[in-house]
Structures are given as C-alpha cells and as structure tokens.
Design goal:
By secondary structure, the chain is mainly alpha-helical. The chain is built from 14 helices and two strands. It has one domain. The termini are far apart.
Length: 286
C-alpha cells in the first residue's frame, strides 16, 4: 500500500470516528439502542472469526456490555428518571463501575504484554491504573442535555495512555496498528476540538467500542485498507516500552504529590487557582 492509500484510509476513518463520537454524545437514546443492537450481532462473530482467543472475546464484551449500561445511566440522568430501578443506577456505584472498567481494560492489555514479554510496557500499564483519577471524586454525569460521562484525567495521563496503548497494539496486533493510531487520535482530538478535556474517556469509550465492533464483524477490513504489518520492528517495540516506563515514573510522583498537597482538585480538573480562590471566598461569604 502506498503512502496515499494510508493517508486516505486513515483520514477517512478519523473523520468517521469524530462524527460517531459527536453523534453518540448528542443522541444518548440512539447511542444506547445502537449498542444494545450491536450485542445481538455476536453469532456473526463466530462466522467471521473476528473475535478469537480469550483476549479478543474478553476485550470486546468488556466494552459492549458496560457501554450499554452507560446508555441507561445517561438516560436516567438526562431525563431525571424516578423509580426503584432508575434510582439505583443513578447512584455512585455506576461511576465506580465505569472507573473499574477503565482499569480492567488496561489490565487486560497489561496481562497480554506480560505474556508476550513486553515487561516495560506492562509496568507502564500497571502504573496507568494506579494513577487513573478515581471515582466518584473525579467522575460524574454532566447536568446538561447530553448527560455526558465526565472523567477528569490529566493531559499527561491521556498522553501516557495513548503511547502505552500504541506500543501494546504494535506488539500484539501489528496489522491493526495503523487503525489503532486513528482511534487513539480521535479520542485525543475530539476534546480539543470541543475545548472539553474532561470528555477524553467518553471519546475513548466510543472510538474503542466502534473499532472492536467493526473488527468483530469485518475482521479483514483494516488489514485490507491500512495494513501495517510491515511496520513491525522488534527493537522499536523493546525501546518504546522502556521509554513509556521512564516517562510514567515521574508522573507517578507528580500524581502522588498532587493528592498529598491537596492540589489535585485544581490540577486534575484544570481549575485556575484564581477562579478557585474566588469560588472559595464566595462560599465563605455565603
């Protein structure tokens, strides 16, 4: 495949994913029922062979099932649903659940890295779990009409997650590396375009779920239009993992320092100190 083939296929996929994120955000009911319907396509996965091995099955199901619950939680929050069942899913346990799913998805890849001998990248994955801002303090559902899942990850954490995940895919599924660049790029770019950094996890949820569903139904698509198997280099993989580990270690200390000094409330949520002081003065005078 020539350079223009990659540019066109990867560019088209990026535009598609950005559109999907925006549509899923703005139309929470459609998003919910779309993912409910997607789960019923699982008999086709056996036919296509798009989901093979424990990791691929676990990864796919651990995204599609939680995203269906996310749809229900968004509906309950946006429409202020009442009743025993609706009230139950509006409690903080749901935020803990989504936080747990994020950590579980990182853990899945970390175990796979360990199995493949990519130990430095596995260390990075473990430390990403340690430094993921926890629920419910840094997670919530927005009060606007979109009922977005808000997670206050830092710019540094997002970057470290991206480079860690790319290194993982580079070693685990090299033919899908080019398409993985795009799903991670879309998750990074969407919050920037919207000037809403707290939407990174939401964007990542919808890009990854879309990607896994396409792979399950059309496993030959990405290798056909953007095959990156020839990009593999064992030395690159080794040193990439080492670099990721070197980068995340100082971040662990910074993360701990923010929590210990009480600065995390501002730094994780990107609240300017002046604005925070004004808010505190208003509270004290009220």
């Amino acid at each position: 495949m020539g350079i223009w083939g990659y540019i066109l296929s990867m560019g088209a996929y990026l535009i598609l994913l950005l559109f999907i994120i925006d549509m899923m955000r703005k139309h929470y009911k459609f998003a919910h029922w779309f993912w409910v319907g997607s789960l019923f396509t699982f008999p086709l996965w056996f036919y296509t062979g798009g989901v093979d091995g424990w990791f691929r099955w676990f990864k796919t199901m651990s995204m599609l099932v939680p995203i269906i619950l996310l749809g229900l939680v968004r509906i309950a929050n946006a429409e202020d649903k009442s009743g025993k069942g609706w009230s139950f899913i509006r409690k903080n346990w749901a935020l803990w659940f989504f936080y747990g799913i994020l950590c579980l998805n990182i853990l899945e890849a970390t175990i796979k890295d360990l199995q493949s001998g990519n130990y430095w990248n596995a260390l990075t994955g473990f430390l990403l779990i340690v430094t993921a801002p926890y629920a419910p303090k840094y997670w919530r559902l927005s009060k606007d009409k979109h009922s977005d899942l808000i997670a206050h990850t830092t710019i540094a954490w997002n970057f470290l997650y991206t480079t860690w995940n790319l290194a993982f895919v580079y070693g685990e599924a090299k033919q899908y590396f080019a398409s993985s660049i795009i799903i991670l790029a879309a998750a990074e770019l969407y919050p920037i375009f919207k000037k809403r950094p707290e939407l990174y996890i939401t964007a990542r949820v919808y890009t990854l779920s879309t990607h896994l569903l396409i792979r399950a139904l059309l496993p030959a698509l990405f290798p056909a239009v953007m095959n990156s198997i020839t990009w593999m280099n064992a030395d690159v993989l080794k040193y990439w993992g080492i670099i990721n580990a070197i980068l995340i270690i100082p971040y662990v200390f910074w993360f701990t320092w923010q929590l210990d000094t009480g600065k995390a409330e501002q730094s994780f949520k990107r609240i300017k100190k002046v604005a925070a002081n004004v808010s505190n003065q208003v509270s004290e005078n009220a």
